[in-house]
Amino acid sequence: MLKSDTNSGTNKRVRKAIITDAGFASRYLPITKTTPKAMLPLGNRPIMQLMVEECAEAGIEEIIIVATPEGKPIYEDYFNNNVNRIRKQLASQGKEDRYEPVQHVLDFPKIIVINQDSSLPYGNGSPVASAKKYVEDEEAFLVIYSDDVVFGEQGDAKTLVNKYEANPQSEAVIMAQEVELKEVDKYGIISFKEGSKDELNNIIEKPSQDETPSKLASYGRYLLKPSIFNYLIPNNTGKDNELWTVDAITQVARTKKVLVEKTKGEWLTTGDPESYFKAHLAFVMKYEKYGVKVSGWVKKFQ
Asked: If DSSP codes are grouped into helix, strand and coil, which group holds residue 249?
């Protein structure tokens, strides 16, 4: 298990994280009929494992995965099943080293898997609201959307924790990445408060190039305080009558300080099959031993 030296001790400010994978993933059907989207692989690890590793790097002690009823037993099995029969077989063959990746998974921080509350409205804020009882007594906690992967030497979870520890008076910290001007109309774009370079005013959804307040796109990496639950409530829905976490964050920003921090890595989305393929390809080329061969393989297929 990875631990952050700066977060050790009993006075740790940020101890828990919520990771969400509770949607239908209809763009991925039929594979997501039986497999949660965040169990799709990046190399030989599922997307969800990268999220958990990011939390472990930040010293998080407890992770709440919010899943569908179909996905819940799959996550519970993946993070808890020691497949002892496989371990014994590998040992008998003198291949104990092949079990090491399994032991790595078993050594993660405490993981609790819950179902999304079916009584809540549709929307990406509902999985967060579903985990309220697990974090409402915390000083602050992380929220990670498994649609968003971050590659780099330092994960966003650690960046968020570090930013908050330096600014504990802030009510939230959100991550952002600069995008090209021609792409601002695809994302929620950060607007800063007048005279500030890191305090959120608003998030403008898909602005035109002429109207965009910046080139910083917001995505699913947040550090929040329990005050967010004042806004993640069923009668506070927004666009398409959905419950949106971003709406709740911008409501917090009206009266409290919400800080924006640029990622130290590279954010990619896996929200649709094409984006997932690009993220998978990028991961393999960056991190797998056989990644150096990929460009050669591609040329053969052209």
From this structure: helix
